[in-house]
Description:
Blueprint: H1 16-22, E1 30-32, E2 38-40, H2 44-57, H3 69-81, H4 87-103, H5 111-118, H6 125-137, H7 143-148, H8 152-159, H9 164-173, H10 176-185, H11 188-198, H12 206-221
Antiparallel strand pairs: 1-2
Helix pairs in contact: 1-2, 2-3, 5-6, 8-10, 9-11
Amino acid sequence: xxxxxxxxxxxxxxxxxxxxxxxxxxxxxxxxxxxxxxxxxxxxxxxxxxxxxxxxxxxxxxxxxxxxxxxxxxxxxxxxxxxxxxxxxxxxxxxxxxxxxxxxxxxxxxxxxxxxxxxxxxxxxxxxxxxxxxxxxxxxxxxxxxxxxxxxxxxxxxxxxxxxxxxxxxxxxxxxxxxxxxxxxxxxxxxxxxxxxxxxxxxxxxxxxxxxxxxxxxxxxxxxxxxxxxxxxxxxxxx
Length: 239
């Protein structure tokens, strides 16, 4: 779609601004463009698709991954269904989008994780830990984000009582640099067995990987401050 002479005004474009638009519906089958010409009314999802396409064409850095997965899916499906959009319609969508942004007085991050970032350093350690555990225990929470953000020494201690295969799964989730760092902190024989096991992780079922992640994340969450994870050995069933 050509965007000549249709540059989007320089405004902040958080992905959350597109979130509410995706689910809305058109009020009628006909709308009026800024020039007064009658144009076809669009659904909120179609308008969001137009804005995403245009903003990406203009080089905007859209963090669509911050949106709920169902919204990401709906938006992608709509973009796949779109074809040509005339200039009057595009101008109308841009005007409506910018007007909506200008009317925003205050925005919130959404979710406990976002709220914790906003309140970072302003909550007691106990309250922060309780809220973090609450966020991670909800359905759909990714335990690997918790595991991979842990310091290297903590991961080494957590993995100490586990099998080489479990350690290999964790290392396979890490960036190459961090995985090498963890291997370097392991005793020689242990490091060799884990490194070999990493080459076999592709054959591990996703359900087993999820079980390992959930188990290790719970162990991290259950650690009292100052207590080494070696005192909390739980072990995972060999696989």
